[in-house]
Structure formats: structure tokens, C-alpha cells
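FORM 7B: Structural annotation worksheet

SECTION A. Query
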Amino acid sequence: MGQTSYEAADRTHAIESNNHPGTLALFLYDTQIAPCLRSTSRLRMRSVKLYTAAIFLSLCWLAWSENLRFIRGDKPQSLLVPNTPSCDQCPFQPIHLSGFSNHGVPGNAMCDALRYNQTIGVQQSFYLHDNLTEVVLLTKSHPLVAYEVESYAKNSGHEDIDNETWARLSGSSVWLPEHAVFLSVTRVTFYPGGSLDWPTVSFLRGQVYDADWNHLEDYILDWFGDKIVFPLIFEIPFEWKENGADPYGPEDPRVVLEDNVRGAEPVIIFNMQSNAPNWFRAMWVYRPFSNFTTVLTIRNEDRKDVEKNWMPFFHRVDAGLSSNSPNEYLHFIYGFVPLRILKCHLLSGYCDWAYQQDITPEVAAGKESRGQLHGGTNFVSVPFDILQNPGIQLYVGFPRTSLISGCESRTYRPELMVLSSTGSSQFHIAYTSDALDFGAAILTPAARADPCGEGHILIANSISHWNRSAAQDIMTITFSVMDVTVQVARLEGLGALVQSLPYFEDLLDYNTAQGENHGMEAFSWKSAKSLIGADVVACAVEAASNTSIRDATKAREEMAGMSQDSYLG
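SECTION B. Predicted structure
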């Protein structure tokens, strides 16, 4: 799949237009010094006069000295953040991780008995950027964009439209080992009405970064002879109405790749609205290199009005065996209480239930009385050097809590979760942490001081890579704050945490039951783990609710103290 002719022409126009000082000013202000320096290599010095070069260098110095990221439109101004580069040598700051492990006996599983605390490390996050002027030029031929651009053209140019009506969010990425690059997928959205809550249309943007997170302009990816040039706008078809009031196009992308399979193609999962009369929003999969799209459909069930927040992972029954061919199926966690998991065919889009936890609706409702868990990142498999047990598969992911506790608006925080599988159709929750804000690594000081305002939305979007080579234990994750940033952070010690869980002690009982062919004992073990897994989720949500109340109360008290000091002063 290559770029279409209009995309190639528009990309050339976008690159050449950056030679104009006015466009360079916007470009530099938006993307800071690193993209600025990359643009230097593209300048055609034969056509650039000396004074233009001087202006260019002055603008570079201005962008460096301000060292701020420009947040567009109606975003809070205190979310202006330093443009911190990636730093492999930056120290990992220890953070306390409180959580709940699946062990013990059902019925006696009080939260204090399940609690398990540990420490992990986190590096300071850094920000990924893009040139939205280029995005405009790549999408301007779409009727929803062109129609609005024409209405603005009488009073403003591209620069004003970029600043006031476009944004990027929900960045997800994955490491492509055969190409030694990160593939990043971000939603870019057009909101001419001035409110990001009511966009007109969204597209998915593809960018490529090297191992050190340097953005690669005009990167050519060779996919079995097909040359794909990045960055680009993915060619995902979608329905729309020119005068429709609803947002169109793909949203909330997540990109995944199957581990240790040569020739595996990434899968982008997203939700998208339809004009179909019997449903409103559904989940879709897209293969970005072969340009294949299909909607996901649960067989033998009526489609719900809205489907979203499914958490993807690749699951093989014989995961200990290497495979020469990519998996035809992708699994999704559909819900947590009760735990429900789908198995979806990547070509047909048809889904069947791989697992449905057997608990009553009344019990399920009681365990989510303080809030709910929703989708967040993908789940990735725990390496076998940690497990050393071919009968068990574990997966690590970061769902998010959705709470109204202590704040008038909902607060969102990621939680670390470990999912366990004891076969093709048996799953349970092995561990879930309390809500995480990762100290000062992700949120700005202003956002940390205002957990009910500028800090109330913190979402982990993807697990990009888990490096377990050469005694490493470093996981790379992408985040977003207030749906306006695309950030990357590295965590250290998650493998050690998983390996230290009390849950592993209980695996000895399961192995004994399996080895001695005690089928009933193995069944009872799985049933017990299923029930305690629901308790683990309930305890984690309750702890997150308590944390939210504590943080909100502390913030209000500090604000009142500052006001009192100001009054007395």
C-alpha cells in the first residue's frame, strides 16, 4: 500500500511550504527544536536568501529558549510542558505500587488479605509531536474538511485553522523488531466549532520513530516490495454526512503486533461511528500495510448501540511453541466484572466468546459499586523466562478506572493488571494495582495540584515494548493527559513484580492437581481463582476511589491554605 497521488502531492507541498518563514514560525512553535533541526536538512539553500536563513535560525533559537509545547484551542494553558527528549540514561525514580494479588480462599478474600505492595521505577516522560499544517494539507480534499476550510478561507489562512481547529490525541505505538523502529498511530481530529468535545471528523496518523524516539521524516517501510512512506494519513474508509452533527472517522486507536512471529503485520484497533440504522458505534480492525479494514461483530447477538474500550491481546493455546505463521485471531477483554473475553477472526471480523465468568448480575453490580474498570492499553504476554511454566500464560496491561469520587467530574487513572490463562478457554485476574499517577513523571505540577481539574484524565494508551534482553526489565508505555498530549515513559521492574506475586505460590497447587490427573481439584482451583479475581478487581476499584477522594481533599485543603495565606498577606 503506497500513498495516493493526492497524498504524495500534498506532502511535497507541505514540506516545501515549510521553507516560507511564516510557515516555519508555526512549524517551530508547534514542534520545537528537534523537528526544527530536521527541517534544516530539507531547506533548498539555493533558493533561500541570506536574510531568510537568518530568520530561520532566529526562530530556532526562539523555539529552544521558550522550550514549551503549544497546546491548541481551548486547552488549559497550564498544560504547557517542557519538551523533554528521550533519555535512556535518565534515572528511574522509585514509586510505591499498592495492589491486590489473587491468592487465598474464596469467601475469606478481604481486601487487606489480598493486598500486595511492591516498588517499581519510572523515568520522566517525554512528548511526541507532529506538524499539523502537514496533516491539514494531507486531509484537505476530504469533503468534511474541505467544506469547512472553504468557509474559513475568506477570513483566515491555514495557520489559523491549524491552531484553532485541529488536535492530536490517543497516541499508541508498537516496536517493529524486523524494521527496528516504533510505529506510532495517533488520532488527529478537526473541530471547527472550537470545542474538542464536538469534533467534525477524525483521521489516524502514522509516524515512525527510531529506537531513541527520533522522528523519521520520509521513512520508507518495505512491506514485501510495497514501499510505504511515513508519516502519512492511513486510508481508512468511513461513512459520513456533510451536514451531520455527529463525529465521524476512526477514534481511540490501539496498535498491536504479535511477538516472535516473522512477517507479522501490525493490527490497529479503533472504534468508529456508522450511519447504520440499528447501531451507532462499533469496533474495527485495520491492517496498515496491506490496507485491509473490517468491522468486528459478535456472532448470534444483537449489536449494541455503542461498542468501545476493548483491550486486545494475542493468545495461543500452545504459547510455549514457536509459530511460523501469524495468528488469525485476536483476543479482547470485553469486560472485567464479570470477566468476559472475545476471540475475533482478523479477516472475517466475526467474534465468539472465548470466556465468560459465571457470576450473578447482583454480585457483579456489588463489586463495581464504587466505579468501573474500562479499556486502556493492549495486553502483552509475560516472557517465559519469568513464568517457567508451560501450563500457564500471563498477560500484563493497564486498564483505567472511571470514578466519580471526590470530584464533580469523572477521574481516570491507569491500573496495572495481570491476566492469567490456564488453557484456551480459562482466564482469571491474577493481580490488579491501585490507581497510578506515576508521581511527577507524567503529570505537570499544575495537573498534580488539581486532580479534579487539569489532572483528572490520565490514560495509558499502549504498551509499546517490553525489553527483557541482556538482563533488562524495561517497559515502554504511551500516555495521554486531558486528551491533549502524547507522552512516552519507561517503567522498570514489572517482570520482577510479576515474578514475586504470591499468586505464583498458588500455581504449585494447580500443577500438582494437573500432574496427578486430579481433574476435580484442577477445576476447583480454576473456580476459586475466578471468584477471587473478581474480588481483586473490586478491591482495586475501591482503593482507587479512596485515593481519588484523598487526593481531591488534599488539593482543596492546599488551595484553601493558599487562599488564606494570600488574604493574610
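SECTION C. Observations
DSSP finds 14 helices and 28 strands in the chain. Residues 429 and 533 are 5 Å apart (CA to CA).

SECTION D. Sign-off
Analyst initials: ____
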